[in-house]
């Protein structure tokens, strides 16, 4: 089998304590460069994943670059474990699966269509809305003219429409007035060369749910809550770039996660239903992680779906999918091989 990936440059393996765009300086549209490779994995993760797979299989590493297609064609692995995020364009997560589909090589995870849709947060929300799955009221903007006289209630969230791993989401993304809104739309357009997604802010509790499997065998792992009451004083209640990559490090005691979440059975049922509905409607395969937040009435809404969930192996790094798997009684190796087995079964490679 093969393992396909993108690896962070060594200089990007840790993020410095940067100053995010400042809400007190609305004219600032500069974009820190430190989030460029936030979606990519470190060698620590890649090597731990390779080790997990090597318990049962011969594994070849194939980096997701311009040489990948020829390597796939030459090696023709029986199956590929895909964690490649890609490098260029809004279809970047779909590039490796599209190659593998062309070569008729099986792989783990969602197909090119689902990965392309899920990276585009607006397209995802349009599909969820069509199927009646709750998500925040939203608008896509390419300029200030697109948001003048916007009939939304502040506060709002403003984020890049096609990024993951909290790229582009800073404390300044939480906007309280039109001046801040205009500043953030400009920042996204200038800093990421893409549209800004504007959403009404959901003020309630936030959860993330790992999903594993396919069809009637699909399951949710123990729900994780991000407990914003434990954030340092003055920090906006978002799992922003600052929170994910600067506050939440091996060196910092950033204990803001409860798994399993402390929720009543009725809310748990509601969250699991909306998560599985989302997973199925978007035709996800094998695994995903779905982010949920409660609205002002305490009802769950979808924030985002991650068909290529982060899987950092070190428990001190608070990587959500492995955290949920550990709470379900799985080791890292068992988690990885269970995902692989789900894909192999889907392709009828195992009984």
Please specify the SSE layout and strand pairing.
Blueprint (H helix, E strand, L loop, with lengths): L1 E4 L37 H11 L6 E4 L4 H8 L4 E3 L12 H9 L8 H8 L1 H10 L7 E4 L14 E5 L13 E2 L2 H15 L3 E5 L5 E7 L6 E2 L3 E3 L14 H7 L9 E2 L6 H17 L5 E8 L5 E7 L13 H8 L4 H15 L5
Helix pairs in contact: 1-10, 2-3
| Distance from first to last alpha carbon | 18 Å
Tally the helices: what do you get? 10
CATH class: Alpha Beta
List low-confidence stretches. 11-33
Instruction: Give the ordered list of helices and strands.
Output: EHEHEHHHEEEHEEEEHEHEEHH
Mean pLDDT: 89
The backbone outline, from C-alpha atoms, is globular
Summed up, the domain count is 1
Q: Which structural class matches the secondary elements?
A: alpha+beta
Count of DSSP strands? 13
CATH superfamily: ATP-grasp fold, B domain
CATH architecture: 2-Layer Sandwich
In short:
The chain is of the alpha+beta class and about 350 residues long.
């Amino acid at each position: 089998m093969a393992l396909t990936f993108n690896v962070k440059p060594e200089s990007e393996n840790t993020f410095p304590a940067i100053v995010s765009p400042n809400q007190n300086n609305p004219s600032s549209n500069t974009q820190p460069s430190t989030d460029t490779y936030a979606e990519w994995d470190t060698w620590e993760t890649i090597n731990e994943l390779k080790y997990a797979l090597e318990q049962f299989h011969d594994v070849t590493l194939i980096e997701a670059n311009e040489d990948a297609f020829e390597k796939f064609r030459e090696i023709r692995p029986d199956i590929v474990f895909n964690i490649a995020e890609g490098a260029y364009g809004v279809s970047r997560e779909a590039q490796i699966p599209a190659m593998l589909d062309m070569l008729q090589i099986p792989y783990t995870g969602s197909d090119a269509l689902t990965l392309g849709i899920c990276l585009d947060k607006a397209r995802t929300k349009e599909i969820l809305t069509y199927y009646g799955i709750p998500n925040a009221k939203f608008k896509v903007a390419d300029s200030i003219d697109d948001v003048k006289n916007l009939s939304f209630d502040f506060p709002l969230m403003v984020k890049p429409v096609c990024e993951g791993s909290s790229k582009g989401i800073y404390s300044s993304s939480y906007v309280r007035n039109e001046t801040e809104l205009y500043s953030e739309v400009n920042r996204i357009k200038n800093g990421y060369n893409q549209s800004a997604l504007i959403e009404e802010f959901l003020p309630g509790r936030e959860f993330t749910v790992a999903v594993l499997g396919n069809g009637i065998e699909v399951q949710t792992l123990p729900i994780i809550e991000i407990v914003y009451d434990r954030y340092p004083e003055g920090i906006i209640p978002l799992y922003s770039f600052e929170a994910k990559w600067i506050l939440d490090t091996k060196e910092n005691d950033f204990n803001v996660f409860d798994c399993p979440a402390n929720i009543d059975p009725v809310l748990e049922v509601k969250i699991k239903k909306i998560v599985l509905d989302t997973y199925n409607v978007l035709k996800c395969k094998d695994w995903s992680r779905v982010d949920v937040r409660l609205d002002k009435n305490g009802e769950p809404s979808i924030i985002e779906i991650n068909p290529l969930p982060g899987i950092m192996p070190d428990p001190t790094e608070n990587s959500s999918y492995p955290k949920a798997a550990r709470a379900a009684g799985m080791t890292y190796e068992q988690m990885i091989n269970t995902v692989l087995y789900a894909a192999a079964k889907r392709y009828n490679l195992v009984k």
